[in-house]
Amino acid sequence: MPTINLHLPHWLYWAGLILFPLIGTALAWRSRRHDGPRLPSLPFAYMLLLLAGFVGAHRVYLKNRWWWVFVPLTLAVIIGNGHIRDGRELVSAARADVQAAAVQVRRAETAVQNNARNATQRLETARAQAAEADAKMTAAHVVLDRAEMVTRTLALVIAGLLAADLVLLPFLHRNRRRVEEVTPVVNPYHYVNAEAPSAVETVEAPTNGFTRAIDRLSELVGGFIAWWTVIAVFFYYTEVVCRYLFNSPTTFVHEAMFLMFGMMYLLCGGYGYLIDAHVRVDIVWARMRPRLRILADVLTSVFFFIFAGTLVATSWIYLDTAWEVKEVSFSDWGIQYWPIKGVMLLGSVLLLLQGTSKFVKDVLVLRSGRV
Fold first, then answer.
1. Which 8-state DSSP code applies to residue 336?
2. Is 38 in a helix, a strand, or coil?
3. Using N-to-C axis directions, what is the helix angle for 209-226 and 253-267, rounded to 10°?
4. Longest CA span, the chain
5. In 3-state terms, what secondary structure has residue 329?
C-alpha cells in the first residue's frame, strides 16, 4: 500500500470547528421542515463512498446486497499491512546483521594481513556469517516484496470497485428511492403511549427577559458544540484508516481531539447547568420540600459565584499570558494555545451567566410564592 502524509493546517482546524456545526445545524433545520418520507440522499451516499467506501458503507446506506464484497477485501488489506510491517522489521534486523558481519569480515582481513594467530580461521567464520546474513536479507526482502505486491493488488481492486461505484451510485440511489417511495420505511420502535400519565408534574418557573436570553444562549451553545462529537468520529476514523490501511499514522489527531474535548467541556458548562446535568451531593437536598430546595440553592449560590468568578479571573490570566508569549504546543503540530485559553474564558463566562440566570429564577420563584 502507498503511504500518505496528512497535515492539518491550523486555520482549517479552527474553520472546521466553526463551519461544520453551522452546516450541520442548517441541514438539521432543513430536514425538520421536510414533511414527506425521508428518502436516501445522493450527496450523503457520495460522502459515505469517499469516507468509508472501502467497507461498502455507501451500499449499506442504499441497502444494496452487494456491500459485503468490500469487507473481505478490506480485511485482507489490513492483514497484508500487518505482514508488511513484519517484513520491514525482518529487513531491518537482517540489514543490521549484514552490517555487523561486514565489520567482522574487515577485522578478520586486517588480522590476516597482520599475521595474527588463528586469523585465517576467524576470516572463514566471519565470511560464513556474512553469507548467512546476506541469505537472511534476501529472504526478508522476498517476504516484504510479496506482502507489498499482494496488498497493493487488493488495494487496486478496491479502488477499481470504488471508481465503478462513482459512476453507478446515481443509478443505485434512484432505484432505492423508487423502492422507498412505494414502501416507506416505518420505525417499529417508535410509538407513543397516549394513555400513560406523566410521572412528574412540573410548574414553569417565573422568568424575565434576562433569564430567557441567557437560557436561549446556553441552548444554542450546547446544540452548536454537540456537532463536535461528529468531528471526533471523523478524526478518529481518519486515524484508523491512515494507521491500518496506509501504515501512515498521523501526528495531529490525538492532540486536536483532546484539545477539542477540553473546549467542549468548558463551553458546555453553562448548558449543563441549565439542564441540571452537573453532579450534586443531594443526600439532604433531595429530602427537602420544593421551597426549601430553592431557598438552599439561593443561599449556597455564593459558593458557585466564588468558583465561577475565580474561573473567569484565572482564565483571563491564562489567556493574557498565552497571547503575550505566543504559546504553542510542544508537538510537531505546534498549534497556538491562545484561542484555546480564549475558549476557556468564554466557557467560564457562559457558566457564570447561566448561574446568574438560575439565581434570578430562584429568587422570582420565592417572591411569587408558587412553591
1. B
2. coil
3. 160
4. 111
5. coil
Residues near 100 by beta carbon (within 8 Å), at least 6 away in sequence: 133
Contact 221, 270 (CB under 8 A): yes
Chain segment 149-169, per-residue pLDDT in tens: 998 899 899 989 999 999 999
First to last CA, the chain: 69
Q: How far apart are CA 69 and CA 67, in angstroms?
A: 5
* Distance separating alpha carbons of residues 207 and 357, to the nearest angstrom: 9
**Helix %, strand %, coil % for the chain, to 5?**
75, 0, 25
Other CB atoms within a 10 A radius of the CB of residue 88 amount to 16
Residues forming beta bridges with residue 336, ordered by sequence position: 328
Measured in degrees and rounded to the nearest 5, phi and psi for residue 328 equal -130, 165
Q: What mean pLDDT is predicted for residues 80-86?
A: 86
The pLDDT value recorded for residue 198 is 42
Q: What is the mean pLDDT of the chain?
A: 84
The helix/strand/coil state of 115 is coil
Report field, pTM of the whole predicted structure over 0.70: no
Give the residue from 76, 57, 77, 75 showing the smallest Cα distance to 67: 57
**Interval 126-142: pLDDT, tens:** 889 889 989 999 999 99
Report, as an integer, the average pLDDT of 180-203: 47
Domain chopping of the chain, boundaries: 40-182, 211-368
